[in-house]
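pinned: reference chain
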Amino acid sequence: MLPSTCSKVTLRQRPISNDRLSLYLDYYPAVRNPKTMKLSRRESLGFYIFANPRSKYQKEYNDAILMRAEVIRCRRQEAVINHEFGFLDREQPKANFLEYFEEKAKQHYEKWTITYRHFERFVKGKCTFGEVTVELCNKFRDYLLKAKQLRHPKQNISRNSAAGYFSTFRALLKAAYKERLLKENLNDFIEEIEYEEVKKFFLTADEVKQLAATPCEKPILKQASLFAILTGLRISDVLKLRWEDIRPDSSGEMSMFVRIQKTQKESVHPLSSEMLALCGERGKGIVFKGFNRSMTQGALKKWITAAGITKRITFHRFRDTFATLQLAAGTDIYTVSKMLDHANVTTTQIYAKLVDSTKRDTVDRIKLT
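pinned: its structure tokens
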């Protein structure tokens, strides 16, 4: 239940040295700081005016400062009416934003960690909440568009990588605002980095069979890759898949119960006998023991080349392959969207366009003349 009285916020002046007047806000009745539970009557604004302006410039200065003080008073009155007392917390602007970012990154997937490391480099290892402004965010946006890769310092990050990192940073700002750690929703004043449309490469059904029939110098890489093609799992989820995640579902059939690293949501995926066979003999702990990200570079390229495939295929393209082959086989887009754990079906529609493009290429191969 809301209180029957509301504090009135009044702008007041107090004489200080050198014939000046310090400005402060007076709250009556006093308002309570929700963190410290202490009552507050006064809030110093941190600036002053001339008590007896002697020149045109001093008068103009007084007018400008008084106008600024009145704007703050109006905002505080509105905050009091809405029972939002975050402005009373004097320590929050001094709190370590970089530390907050690092903790959030630990709760998410690799892109958050990379974005954190870029931001840490950008601010040279120090940043408080009070320093997080629209200007700082726009400068970080510009930094990302020109930044070098963390692992390959001589190469620039791609525009789409920059767009992804900035999108992650915007998600952080949204979280901080929602938790009332930032006073404004800075995303309202910041432009996104738009993604460039790039051609996605995926394997055809015949190429998947070629790959499955081709020996790989790293057998565990082959198992994990084919499993990703059949399930659509991201590499982060393949890497952390454990045997305890594979168990019978409510119908008694074997399924994967996994918490998707990117979304932190639990997802259930039915498993076929072929998928289970790729997991190998049941054991304890990690399913694909010995599989690591370094294998998705040289060893993966070597295996794909040995299979006679000339497309530029990365491990993530196995997820694209899963989506396009499912859609081409007639699986409806909503089911595929659920299998990919997409939050929105519009994300899945990208793969539908790839399938349509493939159909068009096939039609154009048959000509009468």
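why pinned: Confidence is low (pLDDT under 50) at residues 359-369. The first strand starts at residue 8 and ends at 16.
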